[in-house]
Amino acid sequence: MPAEAAETLTTALDTLRESVADLHFGLDLPGVEEARQAQADLLAQLEGYVLPRVRTSTAPALIVVAGSTGAGKSTLVNTLAEKTVSRTGVRRPTTGTPVLACHPDDHEWFAEGELLGGLQRLDAPTPDAGPGSLVVVSTEKLPQGVALLDTPDIDSVVEEHHDIAHRMLDAADLWIFVTTAARYADAPAWNLLRLAKERGARLAIVLSRVQPRSVDVVLKHFVRMLTEYGMGDIDRFVINEAKVTDGRLPDSEVTELRLWLAELSVDEERRAQAVRETLNGVLDSFRTRVPALAKHLEGQVAFRTELRSDVEAAFRSALMEIDKAYKNGSLLHGEVLARWQDFAGSGDLMRSLQLRRRGKAAKQAPERVLAFKAAIRTGLESVIVAAAHRACEEVVARWRHRSELGAKISEGLDSPSDNLIRHTGRAIASWQDHLGELVRTEGVAKRSVSKLVSFDPDSLALIFMVAMFSGSNGEGVPHRLVNALLGAESLRGIGAKALSDLRARISMLFDEEAMRYVKALDSAGIPDESVATRLYQATYNLEVAR
Description:
By secondary structure, the chain is of the alpha/beta class. Helix content is 60%, strand content 10%. The strands form two sheets. The protein has an eight-stranded mixed β-sheet, sandwiched between helices. The chain has a two-stranded antiparallel sheet with strand order 9-10. The model is unreliable at 89-93, 353-364 and 444-453 (pLDDT under 50).
């Protein structure tokens, strides 16, 4: 690859790697574990194979020897290396730490190079070698330019081995798939072949432990299965049932496979073509694998949107409930109604309307006026707090109905915050003061009335509240009195401003309560919608770079 093209492709791949690394699937929705594993696989393949291969295209070809339990992978590697590089035996699983065998001239590439970066290099297997280790051994019996990597079983009962095997496959230039005459039709074998086909990997198949008398029948059946699966033209090698000595087969059984490796070694164009095919196959797979991650992200974002809409709907319903309460007059009941009747019936209502006398100040508000004002504030507080309680209960009920995850996120959120009552009291007291100021500054009395009477703004503001909350039909003493003093136009103007201000203050209270649910969603790690967009864009940029 020309240096300029390699640089462009590397930049696009780096951007894709960063986008994939930034993913966080915070919600345990169906399929999330598969998505997390797919993310880990993508990231490992980008960092351990794709980027190093693009940067160092002249590196030796890495051939992974893979297969199911007991297929004879390690025996095959030992035979080709003419050296016991990988442990064999009847105990399963045998290979736990991957072993890479290569020509001495290629040792530096794999011992210090970027391929399979992040794995600790060892000269020999050790009992305490962890899953992040790779044994690198040299042998002159392998041709220069190709290396064999013996992996744990793809169907190992040890989950850790299974993951290592797939990681090795993701870092391979070519695959040698080893299966036996007795197990070539088993599901694990075909699962691996399906994966190779999806990735576009260059593949060769070794059918081992074949009885000489049945080789034609077995091979014919196997080839027919491969052909039906669209893989009839891949390279195939047959190894007869033979005695294993010191972990190795008779050299005559691997003659054809050894020749195949030698041809790859000496034919640089053929080797490069095989590497390009596999690399392109991996890059092609990103066209579906990356959008699949983006789609799952979009599912998480959509779920977040649904939960957020539940919050908005519940508190919007609570606000409408309060609107309905002060429009149908239901606010004027209980203590508020009793205080109004006491205020109106005691003569304090009339005393609040004083004959105009020059130089005479208005009398101070009676105790009943203050008690009535407090009753209105308490009544409004109770209505708002009750509506908030119902909204919180509704949000939690909706989230629980959606899924167990919704129930988990909503834990401890089925009631308003401890600060709601205090904040509500302050908001209503501030609103009452605001209404008094509106009456004082904008309540210009009718000229015919203003010549005869004066009025106390605070008392009139209370009467105004009663008029506002006694229903929208415009009947009753409060409506007629305020209309007479201020005029219908002023009544409507001040009323609209006062209700709008009250609604805004209640909305702010509910917004503060709703933020508790938003914070719960944020703490769950739900991604932003832009993350999925960046993934799509990174995939597109990669296609352009290719």
